[in-house]
Amino acid sequence: MTVFAxxxxxxxxxxxxxxxxxxxxxxxAFPVRLPQLLSAxxxxxxxxxxxxxxxxxxxxxxxxxAAFAVGAALAAGGAAMQSLFRxxxxxxxxxxxxxGAALAAVSVIVLGEKVMHIVPPDLRxxxxxxxxxxxxxxATLAVYRIAAHHGAALxxxxxxxxxxxxxxxxxxxxxLVFIADDQQLRTLIFWTMGGFGSVTWTAxxxxxxxxxxxxxxxxxxxxxxxxxxxxxxxxxxVGVDVERLKRRLIAQVALAVGAGVAISGIVGFVxxxxxxxxxxxxxPAHRxxxxxxALFGGAFLVLADALARTMxxxxxxxxxxxxxxxxxxxxxxxxxxxxxxEGL
Length: 344
Fold this sequence. Notes:
344 residues; two-stranded antiparallel ribbon
């Protein structure tokens, strides 16, 4: 049962996402008025000074776009994983994507100075995001390789392999933290709590390209996930190639989440809770759940980032802290509302 009956959910979610992007572009330590924003995109003739244009084009636009893309990837990936594993606690991190990316990124932070001199100067800013992306991808491949037997991967084995890879990655991160100096500790702590403070067009374009390819291609799997909700055997009886679906979704989610982690670091909560909130609002049909979760996750992370950079301005709060602080109580309110409606 859904909390609200929405007749046109996707257009409403799209409008809410657009409103969040506008808010994200206007809100900040340097406020931008709506007429100035409209002028910047050619929809108004209001005067636009050079400082405002520079803030919008060079700083705020890539940051807001990155936050929306990462939020959409985490939420859509979480919805797909929860449906694939038929487990409400599943999220992209369960497959080791986030922890593998974190281990690779922390390795670059702590050990990178020893090998960075052999990397061309123009490529050095790319080392950390590329390492995070590859780390997440390798961890996911390892999980699937461990769980696969004769071309089939059991869901329970995938979950256990993911837990084991997460534990190994956590142990590696702990070892690197132990040998890190004070400056490296500060850098890796902020990275593992997530943030968009270092986002630039140059740094995010490759990851955004990956996200643009992987996230929308999750949507055609909606009817297959609806069939899988009946059970693997039942889905096979109606023509679903379950093993092919598993490989396809795991690869897509690993690429999308790995690219997202490469941009922002680890942002918790969104991939786990955002699909639940959308499911409570709209129901379990994946035709609406997947796109709505992507829009909700993107909008949520844009607004969370806007709060993160304004609450304690000129400093910034780690966005992972805010996502838990803001999203947790809202999720509890939705659960309480549903329990009251169902008389539980």
